[in-house]
């Protein structure tokens, strides 16, 4: 997503462990409640399963499990965020991100954004920091959750 520094950023806020994150609304297709998923035996622990989204099979990743090694809790605030991701050939595909602690959307003003000053090769999905109502939110880039290895594991390529 290209961010316009002159406009507010609207984002869905969620938790990973005790930290708060924001996924830009421009990167969302839809927010779904926690659904029963088709299980995929013998896959990575962070692959929650597959759901049927309007006739399309959508792989759902447990972001808590991917980042912390602990799966999302099955509670009311756990949601599945549907987001487009790019395949290597440039074709977009839908990916589901299961996240905890979804509290709604926020309006992030451009002047509240800060560069973290830290880059992690193992976490390229981490974006800028937003100072919002007394807490720090880290912007997430969903396209960068998948490494080349995980893209192949999830068969995002036809």
Automatic annotation (TrEMBL):
Residue ranges of the CheW-like domain? Answer: 8-151
Superkingdom classification of source: Bacteria
* Gene Ontology cellular-component terms listed: cytosol
Q: Which Pfam families does the UniProt record give?
A: CheW (PF01584)
List the Gene3D superfamilies.
Answer: CheA-289, Domain 4, SH3 Domains
GO annotation terms (biological process)? chemotaxis; signal transduction
> What InterPro entries does this protein map onto?
CheW (IPR039315), CheW-like_dom_sf (IPR036061), CheW-lke_dom (IPR002545)
Question: Span of the secretion signal?
Answer: none
Its recorded name reads: Chemotaxis protein CheW
């Amino acid at each position: 997503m290209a961010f316009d520094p002159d406009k507010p950023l609207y984002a869905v806020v969620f938790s990973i462990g005790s930290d708060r994150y924001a996924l830009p609304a421009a990167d969302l297709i839809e927010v779904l409640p926690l659904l029963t998923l088709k299980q995929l035996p013998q896959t990575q622990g962070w692959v929650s399963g597959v759901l049927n989204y309007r006739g399309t099979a959508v792989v759902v990743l447990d972001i808590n499990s991917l980042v912390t090694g602990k799966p999302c809790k099955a509670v009311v605030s756990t949601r599945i965020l549907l987001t487009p991701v790019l395949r290597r050939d440039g074709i977009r595909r839908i990916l589901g991100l299961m996240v905890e602690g979804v509290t709604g959307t926020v309006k992030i003003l451009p002047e509240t954004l800060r560069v973290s000053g830290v880059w992690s090769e193992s976490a390229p999905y981490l974006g800028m920091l937003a100072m919002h109502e007394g807490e720090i939110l880290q912007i997430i880039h969903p396209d960068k959750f998948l490494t080349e290895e995980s893209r192949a594991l999830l068969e995002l390529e036809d």
